[in-house]
Amino acid sequence: MKVLLVDDEKHVRDAIRLLVNWQQHGIDTILEAPDGESATALIDQHQPEIIMTDMMMPIMNGVKLLEWLQANAPNSKTIVISGHDDFSLLRHTLKYGGTDYILKPIDPDQLNEALDKAIQAWTKDEELRQTNRELNIEMNTIKPMYWDKLLSGIIAEPSTYESAAEQLDKELQLTRNINECRVAILSLDTMERSVKNKFSQNMDLLFFSLINICNEFLTTDGRGYAFRHWHSDTEIVLLLWKDLLGAEGFLEKINEGMRTTLHTRVDFGIGRLHAFPADVTLSYQEARDALRKRNLKARDTWIHSMLNPTKSPQAAPTFTQYEEKINLAIRSGSMEQIEDAIQQWMDTVKLSEVITLEQLDLWWREYTVMKRRWVQQFFSGISEDKVKEMLADEPTSVIVPLDEQGILSLSQWQQELTRSIVHMSKMLLENQHKDKNVIFEIAEYLQNHYHEDVTLQEIASRFFLSREYISRKFKQEFEVNLSDYLGQIRMSKAKVLLRNPHLRISQVAEMVGYQDEKYFSKVFKKLEGITPNEYRKTSNSI
Question: Keywords of this protein's UniProt record, alphabetized (predicted)?
Fold first, then answer.
């Protein structure tokens, strides 16, 4: 904490230094000024929390300094130390925020008490200021999310506008007099790869940056407002309600702002002029369609409108036409055969003059269905959860491989497709290898004979292997020993049977391979944490 001593007499400043236990008050910096004018310069530079000032000084006296402090350093607390017992000076001190008026000669106790009072007042005010700062930060964080959700709701259901009309008028200048609008969309799906890579670890920051740039242009003259679409992972929506016929040109200005700030341009889709709020959804859909139908193989413009549609695409090939070739390549495990099958598909794609995001999305959905079908064919009998697990590394939506100019890169797409197909082939080969592995044959035997009195010696004899070898290899493959694996199977089956209230515990025990009911109960509690009877009561109560 800092204190400033302002007095034209140096011996007074020295006396104040000696009379106060600064360390006890938490003050580590003491500044001095011989007059009010010098004091203002020090206050601007150091912003002291406490100021002790005389009233009668040359150049700028204490009266003027107090007035200056109220206007320029309102957070500081001021103690007046004066040799004049003058009511007008006291009144001036109180009027301009002074916390105390002390007469010379200075009484040490009175001075320390006044300083303590000023520090307490400053601390209390600072706590309030900090609370307000935290509230402002929180509000600034929440507010954009609130507008995102509210405006996304109006896009989806225009009737919700009425309940928010007053707020929209007050905050965004979207008044009730506005009866027409246009919607534009900026989508990250078709953004330059280099920019997305730069923000790959923080996509929220990318959204924040893009929206801020848009709103710097839009909100200056109340032209519109940009927000993150609540129902999309990749869209920023621009709701426009002023100078609608010149909207395309204004989007070009925003794009120039993107180029200056982020060194990139973006694709905008824009809908036609429609009634607001009744037909705002229609304008949004037109903007979305304009983006999805733009030709990814060409760069004619950055602003896409259904008023100026791209060349209609010719009948596109379907991915399923190549399913059999790719299926055989996967089964072969040959990198050469896989690359050849994919090359045949890509050669066909290259003949298309127009490829849209809509078409890419269709091909991706075809490929997704094919992958699921292949997994079910290649790994017969696996559960739905296992299918999902095997496909978990694959993207959940279409990836648009664009080059630095935002044009579709067929070479990148080919690489990504090859990677995915090779991954599928490797999984198949690994599974085939496991099928031949004797340890997996033993695991399958346990699955089928869990209800019998299975022993390690019996398994060793059946598979012509030593007990030690089976134990070691089984633990390496499944990370549990054989007896625990068998116990897990039995407990899993037992839990299903225990849900049948007509089966006695002893019957359940026998059905999963335990002749002794008490031993079964002991093993069950060890593995599951509760007794079979407790499990039955719990499961049947759900």
Answer: DNA-binding, Phosphoprotein, Transcription, Transcription regulation
Strands 224-228 and 235-240: antiparallel
**Token pair recorded at residue 375:** 């997994």
Q: What percent of the chain has pLDDT over 70?
A: 93
Q: Quote the distance between the C-alpha of residue 242 and its chain's center.
A: 32
CA dist list (Å): 162 to 154, 175, 273, 505: 9, 11, 20, 63
- CB-CB contact of 264 with 194 (8 Å): yes
> Per the structure block, which two tokens stand in for 197?
């890579």
User: What are the C-alpha distances in Å from 139 to residues 44, 113, 145, 146, 442?
Assistant: 30, 39, 10, 10, 62
Secondary structure class of 342 (helix, strand, coil)? helix
pTM, two decimals, is 0.54
Residue-wise pLDDT tens digits, 86-105: 878 888 888 888 888 888 88
Give me the phi and psi of 88, to 5 degrees please: -65, -35
The model's pLDDT over 419-477, given as tens digits with 9 standing for 90+, comes to 888 888 888 887 666 655 778 888 889 989 888 888 889 888 888 778 887 888 788 78
Other beta carbons within 10 angstroms of residue 147's beta carbon come to 20
